[in-house]
Amino acid sequence: MNRSPAPSRARPGAAPSRSLIVIAGVSSLGGLLFGYDTGIISGALPAIAGAFDLAETGQQLVTSAIVVGAILGAYASGRLSDRLGRRPAIIVAGAVFAIGAVLAAVAPEAWTLGIARLVLGFAVGLAAQAVPLYVAELAPPARRGGLVVMFQLAITVGILFAYLAGYALDGSWRWMFGLGALPAVMLLAGMLALPESPRWLFTHHETAAARAVLLRVRADTAVVDEELGQLAETPATGDQRRLRTLRARWLRPALVAGLGLAIASQITGINAIIYYAPTILGDAGFGRSAAMLTTVGVGVVNLVMVILGIRLVDAIGRRRLLLVLIPGAVLSLAVVAVVLMTEPAPQGAGRWLVILGVLGYVACNGGSLSVVVWLAGPEMYPLGVRSVAVAVSGFTVWFFDLLVSLTTLSLTSALGTTGTFWLFAVVNAAAFLFVFRFVPETRGRSLEEIESALRSGTFTAMR
Prior knowledge:
Layout: H1 18-27, H2 29-52, H3 56-83, H4 86-106, H5 110-138, H6 144-168, H7 173-178, H8 181-191, H9 198-203, H10 207-217, H11 221-233, H12 252-267, H13 270-283, H14 288-315, H15 318-342, H16 349-366, H17 369-380, H18 386-438, H19 447-456
Helix pairs in contact: 1-5, 1-6, 2-3, 2-5, 2-6, 2-8, 2-13, 3-4, 3-5, 3-18, 4-5, 4-8, 5-6, 5-17, 5-18, 6-14, 6-17, 10-11, 12-17, 12-18, 13-14, 13-18, 14-16, 15-16, 15-18
InterPro entries: MFS_dom, MFS_sugar_transport-like, MFS_trans_sf, Myo-inositol_Transporter, Sugar/inositol_transpt, Sugar_transporter_CS
GO cellular component, one term: plasma membrane
Protein name: Sugar porter (SP) family MFS transporter
């Protein structure tokens, strides 16, 4: 019998206020910068390789430098978010984004460009933890999924802008990097006018300030009082800044689900396509112009699916969205692999099947795992350890992203393009089985209700 808490009923204050939409929109500029600064390397890499005479290893190091920085940023994010607050952590990220963009644009040598990418990565890792956490702690349960997924939408918009910049500025890689300074300044300025997370304020004994923020983003005073009451009833979990707090047995189901989704979001191959699409398609016989245009198509499809995901993640739920779309990713990758097996350099109908297979994969993976991964941690982890647990999830994402970015070209060389697509198809199938077994449904439940289910042992029974 399922004894997990029932989802919160719709309340007068459940719909997001204009103020809350502005908060989610401005803070999600951190996601746009995330997407732009990770995606721009796809169009810039060929020109950088020519300018600095970089071999395959050098190209992978320049590409992966941002991921190393993101690992460092994720590691620091929990402490910064807890000590300074969620909002100041995002402000710091905005400043670092601006500095990194300028450094990359003026880099005189490959190693200085690598350092600039490392700096940008630190900002990416920090924003990837702080922004979803900030929005999740401000949003009402009925709209939390869509508002947090605005961060992923912004990532996708940033990736699309990066692809368009790469196509329009073909060869002008310094301008490609420099353009990232503009949204960084916008994020920095915009966050100065926004409030702090009410849950951070409450845990730092600023109850009056927490109430004032909730009144700003909720339409109903009764809803505010109920949320504060739930917060007051939430048990403390020791020193939330220490990793050892995550060893508690009752936390394990959330950690398994959250960290498993973090790993799956990377090893299923989406960033391999984002980082190396022109190179992989070139190996499959596509010309440079056709490969770059297909890459722009990848960005457009990813954007459309995330927009759809914003609606579906609250309408049908996180778990169901994953279980419906991941099989489509498996099928799409298998189609590409079969075509390349029969025709290594496809032409005519075969080429179109490869393009449609790649776009179908991006649609199904980008519309499921990529949508849910940044939402899962802030929802599943209890308040007392939320910041450090989300930081660990972010660290996991970036560690496996680094693994993918460092090995994709080598993997393609070793297995061939066909073998690489088959491998990613198998990994996506394994991700489906993991979701089916370990990932619960959190749609419509307050953060405090999810924590209550975790403490009572009914977390994985939520469907």
